């Protein structure tokens, strides 16, 4: 099985929507136009098996000081084959001089294990704080 990586989205947006839906990220697919617009304004690397989209990483960056990893997803039937790690490593390799490489994700054992295996550490281990704005606090 040869996975091919590309720095572009597939021409068929239905593949993107199917990938997001397939991993259970239906909050994104409720407004497909918004998701596709967000992807068009992000840096993306995709993974394919032949013509089938099997993985995607989406980041937001200024290209100088920060790289924010927004989405990293791999189709369920392809998980455990290091496709996610390869997508992440390729994105990080595209930005070797950026010091701040950050992400916010679910706090599950599986997710922690994945990102720690890729060289990330929790903010608590760095003696820093992370904050998120919630409109509920108004």
Q: Please give the domain count.
A: 1
Secondary structure: number of strands: 5
**Beginning-to-end CA distance, first to last residue:** 51 Å
Strand content: 15-25%
Specify the CATH architecture: 3-Layer(aba) Sandwich
Describe it.
- The chain is an alpha+beta fold.
- The chain has one domain: Aminopeptidase, CATH 3.40.630.30.
- The chain has five helices and five strands; from the N terminus they run E-H-H-H-E-E-E-H-E-H.
- The protein has helices at 13-22, 26-29, 32-40, 83-93, 109-117; strands spanning 3-6, 43-49, 52-61, 66-74, 100-103.
- Strands 1-2-3-4-5 form a five-stranded mixed β-sheet.
- A hairpin with a 4-residue loop joins strand 3 (52-61) and strand 4 (66-74).
- It is globular, with a radius of gyration of 15 Å.
- It starts with a strand and ends in a 21-residue tail after the last helix.
- The model has no long low-confidence stretch (mean pLDDT 93).
Key words describing this protein structure:
single chain; 138 residues; alpha+beta; Aminopeptidase
What's a quick, concise take on this entry?
The chain is an alpha+beta fold and 138 residues long.
Topology:
Layout: E1 3-6, H1 13-22, H2 26-29, H3 32-40, E2 43-49, E3 52-61, E4 66-74, H4 83-93, E5 100-103, H5 109-117
Parallel strand pairs: 4-5
Antiparallel strand pairs: 1-2, 2-3, 3-4
